[in-house]
User: What shape does this take?
Amino acid sequence: MSTAILTGPPVAGSPLEGDLRALGFDVRTADDPRSAAELIAAVPAQERVAVVDPRFVGHRHTLRLALTDPRFPAAAVPGALTAQPEARAALNHAATKIPVGAGTAHLTDVLTGTLTDALERADIGLQRIELGSLVAAVPLTPAQREDAGEAVAAVDGEAVRLRTAVKSRDGFFTTYCISPYSRYLARWCARRGLTPNQVTTASLLTALIAAGCAATGSRGGFIAAGVLLLFSFVLDCTDGQLARYSLQYSTMGAWLDATFDRAKEYAYYAGLALGAARGGDDVWALALGAMVLQTCRHIVDFSFNEANHDASANTSPTAALSDKLDSVGWTVWARRMIVLPIGERWAMIAVLTALTTPRIVFYALLIGCALAACYTTAGRVLRSLTRRARRTDRAAQALADLADSGPLAELIAGTMRGRGRAGSFLAPAMAFLSAAVLLVWVLFEDDPASWLTVGVAACAAVLSGVAVARPLKGVLDWLVPPFFRVAEYTTILVLAARADVPGALPAAFGLVAAVAYHHYDAVYRIRGGSGAPPRWLVRAAGGSEGRILVVTVLAALLSPSGFTIALTALAVAVALLVLVESIGFWVSSGAPAVHDEGEPA
Assistant: This one.
């Protein structure tokens, strides 16, 4: 239960108290600032408290935005403010410091404004809510109250709430083919007490059923799979819109939404591969290639964004050109579609599944994602080379965490401390060489399942250790994690494909899926402000270079059938290790609520 304290001159017939109760507040009244301070202090420290002026005039959704959003420790609009447990001490202190008596009218006439200013000075993360066309006012005269009431009546608060439930930046397919009706589905869910996490889970189950239909290998199964995949995407949009509509944000919700998106898409790839196999067509290599390409695209996005998360300046001519293009309407949609975002990608997969074959689906997916990856990566490299910005320690640590270096790379990096210059091109150059040396060998060697490959993997591990020896503050250091991901995932794919035995590629698919989950989990912990996975987990999982060495040793040591069994066992072991720790963390996490606006590509 949350408590709202009305403090100020009472207003007869005001709907304010009813609005507050509808929002879940226990309403109490205070006659003066001293009694308000006593009531604030009396609310248990672990509860949210709101202070509202009884003269407040505004939409109910205005109060909802100001008083119920879980993302901010404190928030305010004219006439109303709220403080969550982490900001309660500052609010209590501010309330006790309000003077009363002669000469204090300017501080007590609108007490909420005085308390808001005090919280802002306390620097506890107060958020002043931007209301747009919504109204929030504290009229002091009957005429002002009448004007404020007319302003409220002139704006449909529910229409605003529905409109803002949709992301401000989305793909063409989502904006014009999904959101026009999914927002109403979100409202329907809200009115029935459904939570975003429940809708997210329903989306996952629908996608898994779609994957099962695709796995039948029949034309009817493929048609049903395409239809269900689209419906799963509708639910995927609905969960975020429900979160925005009802302000039900949470760290776990953002994590579930992001990880379930990957689980849905990659499970669907597996379903298509199984369905193709029933028809005599082995497309597991294409399915794994699509997963590798999509995951590496995402790590490029994540690494670039983390590297520039708190950059102090952006003077890139490339960014200026991008902003200029955004002012031309048609180029905005063209540039959003060319990166093949999730809406366009899933629509393409669904339609091609229903009308063609799994092989054509994967060919289209690989070509489309490859072109999108080239476009986005080239643009980000140009932005990085032409911008002037100071990279922070936080950004460097985030990139180091995303690199996922294990004990061997740590040992090598430790011997290199103090050598080289942070901010140079050494780190991405070494990461590129590490990946290139390994991949050229496994791709072009006649028999990569050999001890020579183990030696090459050891050399690549040394180069990867050199890459992370210095803080990753260079202009292109955000490329280090993507290079490591390409090396690890592609090595597993090639060695499994070259084993040329049934089951090797499905086992490799499972291993890459487990490792990719670990990497996505790290991203969303960092995004949520919770830090990277613990070092013991990274070390236990071997790090990128450690897993590459393990896979190459298994390939050299075992027969192809034995290698397949070993890959399966390794996939199960990694999955259990990262899932148990990750689920335990997110279930018990005390991280602040966040709202994920979705993947950039």
In short: The chain has 26 helices and eight strands. Residues 358-386 form the longest helix (29 residues). The two ends are 39 Å apart (CA to CA). The CA atoms of residues 500 and 539 lie 31 Å apart.
